[in-house]
Amino acid sequence: MKQDEIDPRVFDLYDEYCHTEMSRREFLERAAALTLVGGISATAMAQALLPRYAEAQQISFTDPRITPQYIDYDSPGGTSGRMRGYLVKPEGDGPFPAVLVIHENRGLNPHIEDVARRMAVEGFLTLAPDGLSPVGGYPGNDDAGKELQRSLDRDELLTDLLNSARHVKSHPLSTGKLGATGFCFGGGAVNFLAVRMGPELQAAVPFYGAAPATADVPRIRASLLVHFASDDPRINAMRPDFEAALKASKADYTMHEYPGTRHGFHNNSTPRYSAEAAELAWSRTVAFFRAKLG
């Protein structure tokens, strides 16, 4: 089903489902209660929005240009003291500039693993941590993943991501130059890393992520490339204060808003995906990392 075939109220309901404790059953039931005019039911629209990861895969894990593997590493101060992530090495001997790819609010699902492979194909040593690994890992479906991630202590989870960033930065195949990108929760986590890591992080690319506290923005030393959807009230409400603080601190930043897009427009596993905007945002991201990381 195409994006323009889905009623805006169903999109809004899906956004609420993604970002609250709403269950899949409640999402589908509330969609079914909507009164629509036309031939497509709201239930069918709601079901179309649920992710289809196998159909969305762009880079196979057997692609000869990459070598992926799951790795375990220490994470002091995190949820359990240990972490697991998906490390993808580009073709060649290296060393390579390193990039951390941070998942949404449901753990390391197949879409984020695919994004990590896409980044590695572009020549970056890429680590996609699974914030759920200390409590068993991504459970195989997003509903359980969302519930499991919500049960974690947020500060400990962010510490696990910070340790993941430092792990890939110091990896023997890394040049020591580090970038980070992430989506939704992961976008906010990228902003957290930019504040927390200071000069340790060279480049940060949050996709529709929560802005850091205004008082923390002067601590940012990384170059920022910030992607916004045009129809994303929750995240966009934070933009004016964020941008004003970046200007005041003379940060190196660029912001892009993509017309006609919704929160999650880069995720090609659901109809929220906007191919033109996603491809442009991705090309800008890769070019930015190449410019800032070498």
Order of helical and strand elements: HHHHEEEHEHHEHEEHHEH
Which strands sit side by side, in order, in the main sheet? Answer: 1-2-4-3-5-6-7-8
Unreliable stretches: none
Give a short account of the largest sheet: 8 strands, mixed
What count of structural domains? Answer: 2
Number of helices: 11
CATH architectural grouping of the largest domain: 3-Layer(aba) Sandwich
Globally, the shape reads globular
CATH fold call of the largest domain: Rossmann fold
CATH superfamily of the largest domain, called what? Alpha/Beta hydrolase fold, catalytic domain
Radius of gyration: 19 Å
CATH class of the largest domain: Alpha Beta
Strand content: 15-25%
Binned, the helix content reads 25-40%
Question: Helix/strand/pairing class, anyone?
Answer: alpha/beta
Query: Can you give the mean pLDDT?
Result: 94
- DSSP strand tally: 8
How far apart the termini lie comes to 40 Å
Oligomer: single chain
